[in-house]
Amino acid sequence: MGIPERNARILVIDDEDSIRRALRSILSVRKYDVSLASTAAGGINAAIETNPELVILDLSLPDMDGIEVCRELRTWMTCPILILSVRANEADKVKALDMGADDYLTKPFSAGELLARMRALLRRAESRVCQPPEIQAGGLVVNLARRQVFMEGQEIPLTRTEFEILAMLAQNIDCVVTYRMLAEKIWGGDEEKDPQLIRVHVSNLRKKIEPDHSLPCFIHTEPGIGFRFTVQ
Q1: Domains observed in the chain
Q2: Residue 202 to residues 54, 154, 163: CA-CA distances in angstroms?
Q3: What is the pTM of this model?
């Protein structure tokens, strides 16, 4: 098997010692830069610290189901996620893919198939526009991975809904984000989508992050449509 064209950063999240050792051996000899984690919490922290280009994720972790880890990573991470699991039933595969996984390989696996799938995922990922885990706009810092917001170095406490709104707006700088898009992000497709409720949350958010919430410099209203986040 040939050496990859570049030393891609790979994060392996698996609680089986033997699997982690095997993957480290398989990947390191091909010059991949490998990080290992044995728990969901350790994996999420490693993803924040190493900013991997591909994640290999087991579903059976001791502290959180791997599908939930996938969902959590997808709130800020765009790199490919390859599920590697003993669970072979269709329901688990569908759920993992729906939560943002890019591919699914069952254990036991062959090194050749694993490497081929990794190469395919990395090739496709090269065309993606990667969203940085931290967005800066003047004195405002939005850390998507740790779900923290700072203004001039001071942490600003936000509710879950306020953070979801700010994160979506900040990830779409200078683009109009509609009420419908925000509602689907916050509550999903089956919940209430009242624009007035969103306007209330945005008003509260402005009071926390805008130097003068009556003259916003970050979040601008697009009347009848939604909002737009700008960096001045």
Answers
A1: 9-125 (3.40.50.2300), 134-229 (1.10.10.10)
A2: 34, 20, 10
A3: 0.68
